[in-house]
């Protein structure tokens, strides 16, 4: 049986707001989710993207919603499960 050293015994699990990386990834996930819902709603209403002036339809809004929520899920997963790095 191999004894545990102090470096492996004292590792802590990351959380959503534990490290600067996880805080940034959580913020990216939140902003991406809100932006994708906004683009989907604008596409549903056949609106124009505010800054660029691109005409959105329902298909473009649905694609943006799926892509944005997938990106937000990946960022949230990285925030929850990424272990602390060299800065700790």
What does this structure look like?
- The chain crosses the membrane at residues 20-44, 56-82.
- The protein is mainly alpha-helical and 88 residues long.
- It has a domain at 36-82.
- Helices cover 60% and strands 0% of the residues.
- It is built from 3 helices and no strands.
- Helix 2 packs antiparallel against helix 3.
- The longest helix has 25 residues, at 20-44.
- The protein is elongated and about 65 Å long.
- The mean pLDDT is 83.
Largest sheet: none
Mean pLDDT: 83
How large, in whole angstroms, is the Cα Rg?
19 Å
What series of H and E elements makes up the topology? HHH
Apparent shape: elongated
Span between termini: 29 Å
Helical/strand content category: mainly alpha
Strand content: under 5%
Query: How much helix, percentage-wise, in residues?
Result: 55-70%
Low-confidence stretches: none
Tally of alpha and pi helices = 3
Number of strands: 0
Keywords: Membrane, Transmembrane, Transmembrane helix
Write the layout of secondary structure elements.
Layout: H1 6-9, H2 20-44, H3 58-81
Helix pairs in contact: 2-3
Brief summary of the model shown:
The protein has 88 residues and is mainly α.
Name a few traits of the molecule.
88 residues, mainly alpha, 3 helices, 0% strand, transmembrane, transmembrane helix
């Amino acid at each position: 049986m191999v004894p545990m050293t102090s470096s492996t015994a004292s590792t802590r699990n990351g959380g959503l707001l534990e490290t600067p990386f996880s805080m940034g990834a959580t913020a990216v996930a939140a902003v991406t989710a809100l932006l994708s819902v906004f683009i989907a709603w604008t596409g549903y209403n056949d609106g124009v993207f505010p800054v660029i002036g691109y005409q959105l339809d329902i298909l473009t809004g649905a694609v943006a919603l799926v892509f944005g929520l997938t990106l937000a899920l990946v960022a949230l997963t990285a925030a929850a499960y990424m272990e602390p790095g060299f800065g700790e």
